[in-house]
Design goal:
By secondary structure, this protein is mainly α. It has 14 helices and no strands. Helix content is 80%, strand content 0%. Helix 3 crosses helix 12, helix 3 packs across helix 13 and helix 5 runs antiparallel to helix 11. The longest helix has 39 residues.
């Protein structure tokens, strides 16, 4: 019993220290994972990257690869991760459901369906980011709209909204799979959208992503006060003079837009919008005015770090004579997210 209490106190002290240091360490972590992502690729060695950064390189190929290939890829990974994390936190607060995330509320599957349908029809593709953004946004709002119609008068019930969201996500995911049959020639592009990847990201993708992320991220931050009231319950929100249905609709609009922008940039990345908000709440507390920016930084670190791991894994595969094997960042986030969920589930079972 004494040992258990001691461990609990030690864990509490460690958590308190992490909470105090998080605002200072997160910017350092963002810079660290960005640097790691720039150095991790297999097409350019670390010493050549460093030579370009310090201005001592006369290698045009190295300069092109760094400034035109690796840097936009890193920025897109950071931006997409921030979008997904903020969208997940907004969804969980608005629906009062800790298991709500872009993946299970129809938003991500709808955005993916829009992107792959446009790709299969030849209207969009990885080389036409503007068309992909439009298709993903239309798909994301379509998925959210379908969910909104299904819940009907039960829109104020978070449990009903979450259950219907799982149903809508399943239907949209199945519809995406149909594209594999209708347009078999686009199977490579479709699989990339379904898994999520940062391969071949260019400045065009970044220039489309950052204004979108900045606008809707700011809108989500401005809705932080109503969101905190919604988390306290319908009665508390109404007593404070808030219209819960209207506030929830505005918050969901921000979440859908942020998710659609991320999917348009990198495809579907699993678990980021579901798990990162829990870490942000643990580190920054319940005040969403602080936690939303913290979640954005954590999401950026998560996706960019996962992209660095994916590139290192691709380099290792190249050493094994698998030069054509490219590990997508979505596979890394899926494996990491599944491992975290299993660890949490086992810990919960042990505690009981």
């Amino acid at each position: 019993m004494t040992a258990s209490v001691t461990r609990g106190r030690a864990a509490g002290a460690l958590r308190a220290r992490a909470v105090r240091l998080a605002p200072y360490l997160l910017p350092v972590a963002v810079l660290a994972v960005a640097a790691g992502d720039l150095l991790a690729g297999r097409a350019l060695t670390a010493d050549r990257v460093w030579a370009v950064l310090v201005g001592g390189s006369a290698d045009p190929l190295a300069e092109h690869l760094l400034w035109q290939v690796r840097l936009p890829r890193t920025l897109v990974a950071l931006g997409a991760g921030a979008c997904l994390a903020v969208a997940g936190l907004v969804l969980q607060a608005a629906l009062r459901n800790p298991l709500a995330g872009p993946e299970v509320t129809g938003v991500t599957p709808g955005a993916v369906l829009g992107a792959v349908a446009a790709t299969g029809a030849g209207l969009a593709g990885w080389a036409s980011p503007a068309a992909v953004v439009v298709a993903a946004v239309v798909g994301g709002f379509t998925g959210a709209g379908l969910l909104w119609l299904l819940v009907g008068r039960e829109r104020s019930d978070p449990a009903s909204t979450a259950v219907h969201g799982v149903l809508v996500s399943a239907v949209l995911g199945g519809s995406t799979s149909v594209v594999l049959l209708v347009a078999p020639g686009e199977i490579g592009s479709v699989v990339q959208w379904m898994i999520g990847t940062t391969e071949a990201r260019t400045w065009a993708h970044w220039h489309l992503l950052w204004p979108w992320a900045l606008f809707w991220g700011a809108a989500a931050w401005l809705s932080s006060a109503p969101l905190m009231l919604l988390r306290c319950g319908e009665g508390v929100a109404q007593a404070a003079g808030l219209a819960p249905a209207r506030a929830r609709a505005g918050a969901l609009l921000c979440a859908v837009a942020l998710t659609a922008g991320a999917v348009a940039a990198v495809g579907a990345l699993g678990f980021v919008g579901l798990l990162v908000p829990h870490v942000a709440l643990a580190l920054f507390g319940a005040d969403l005015r602080t936690t939303l920016p913290g979640a954005a930084a954590l999401g950026a670190v998560t996706v960019c770090g996962a992209d660095a791991v994916a590139q290192l894994a691709s380099r290792a595969a190249g050493g094994l004579d698998a030069d054509r094997l490219v590990v997508p960042v979505g596979a890394v986030t899926a494996f990491a997210g599944a491992a975290v969920l299993l660890a949490v589930a086992r810990r919960h079972t042990t505690d009981q």
